[in-house]
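Subject line: Sequence and fold of a protein, written as structure tokens
Enclosed: The protein record, placed directly beneath this head.
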Amino acid sequence: MLLFSQFRFDSERLALYRGQVAINLRPKVAQLLDYFLAHPNQLIRREQLLSALWQHGEFREAALNQSITELRQVLQDDAKNPIYIKTLPHQGYVWICQVKTASCYKQRVTLIASVGLTILALIGGLYRYQHISPPSTQVQAKTQLLIHPMQNLTGVQANAWWGYALEGTLRDSLQSNYQLIPKSKSPDYLEQSEKGAPQQLFLSLQSTQQRYLLTAKLADRQTQVLVEQLDENFIEIAHQLVNALTINKPMSISEHKEVNGLRDYFRGIQALNEHGPKLAKTYFEAALIQAPDHVPSQIELARIAWLQGNVELAEYYFGEVDIVSASLTLQTRYYLYLGEFQKVLGEYQQAGQNAQRALKLAEHNQFIEQMASSYQLLADIAWSTLQWQDYSHAMSAAHALIGSRSFAYSEAQRSFYLANPPAAGPEQKNVVNLAQSKEVLASAIQYYRQTNQRIELSKSLFAYGQNYLVPVSESEGSLLEALEIAANSGDQYFKMQVLTYLGFYYIQLHQGQRALDYLNQVELQQTFKPALEQLSLLKAMAYMDIGLTTNQQQALDTAEQLFESILLAETTSAMAGANVKLLLAWVALRQGEIDKSLLLSHAALESYEQSGLSDAMTYAKYTQMYIHLLQNEPRDALKLMDLEHDKEAHLMLFYSAAAAHMTENMALLEQTQRMLRNLKNSDALLAQLALFKQQPQGDAKLIADLLDAPYSVYCQSKWILE
């Protein structure tokens, strides 16, 4: 037994105690603590930890970061003023707390009915304790469990609500005993035989004469329950299922209060998944008529209110919830919903506080899905406030918890970042894998089509349409189908998101008028300030695109006026302000105002640098490079070249090659041409470059006619959308 501070650690069983209280740790976190305690006061490099504990896996770095964070939280260790784990930047970690070895506690074995072992039976198998400790010191290992939605085989869609009720009751009952896999992971585990898959519970309901037959399957075990009628008996049925599928029936099932309105509440949950908030709202209101203090219905109605654009009603419902007496699960959901609401209002400080509250509750109770949602919300807030380190940490933590799916949805919402929206992010801090995300979403779309979960289907379609590896022939249809579902669901906020992205999508295709057609359909309350700012910026971009592609002076004038109004607004965010300066530089460049364009691009570059938007800095730099080429200043253009950082930026390489030719730097010309040739969709630029090298130098008009301008592409993610 190892002792440190007020803790003791059993290295054989990887069990941590504070006094007589056992502290639950994920196995990997326990192994990490064991490694630290075995090497006190030694510099432990990250490579050592990765080699010892994470030999395999694509996201080893993120997993290590998450485990370090979890261990510090358990020990209540402050990274800035550490008591246990000290970080040495660019070197590794040192365990700085004194570690003592104690004689093993005398293990008292109690014989119960001649059995010398206590057997704790869980749905994933048997876990044995070699001795019986007092209840407070027992460490219960948690088995992973995935509860699939019930298959409604009755032929009556109205019966589906009972499956949602049964599943919800099972999840509430089992979450303290199992590590429940998030429901969003269901499409990933359709095959039980998949290596490394968790235990999976399958449910199906079918009609038999005047009654119903419920079948439950878990691994090699199956049980059937005859259900007389579909009413509030799902609580009793859930208890029967657990007892039938659990060996020796040792599990304590959390009690559910039978309250009026449960049927309407779960019908509301079904409606939320299959139809959207418009239909769900009526059921939750009906539940509250029967039980005015029913917290779950209050929370869902609060979220539905702002999704439908009624901010005042949302504030009322959030204010009415008696959160103190609610269960921990409901408290977590409340803080998540409230934080999300505050985020869309632009109240980032309050949103962050509630996200942290939700995270603390979820971590304490090991609610994986809610932990991941809390981290994703924190990432959204960090993105909006330009806190890139916090953003990177939160997204890495979410990914460590639920994998690629954490990026598939949340990263899609950040696709309006000018430079490489969902793929890279600032300083390449995002670990999203677009190829993996595309595969995850494709399987999710197929799964949700089969299970009639229309709302989850629309979210998957929306994210799939924003993936830059998806061809236009697929992405456009995916986005339009998501819009159709959103319009019918009554979710006005989600409809606004899809319409707004469609505007951005068609701007990238240089179809400014079509973009305006969608952007003009957006209806927003003034309280949704971040979304309004985004909408204003995109409308101005659409007019700019019309002016740039058709040479319509009126469209350019309109774009310029809209951009300047955004820049003058006191509430304009730093990111939007930086983008507007660059876009105004492009408008000025198109109108021949070279000096004005150079000043604006300088201002944009400074703003990007101050905000840590390094990818967007590339846009400003190659805009200045183009201007220097027009002014026959190729050496000044080359001073802005950064072939290491911008090696995948088509125009940076293109202008660098042109400047190298103008300065007769043949080695650089060959290098930049080779790098450009290695990029996909570079043939047109290489052809321009070949023609340019054949012409006499120094003619600004010739350069303007032969070389693509900086505004020829609005997104570095793809030179040509396929």
In short: Residues 529-550 form the longest helix (22 residues). The longest strand covers residues 199-208.
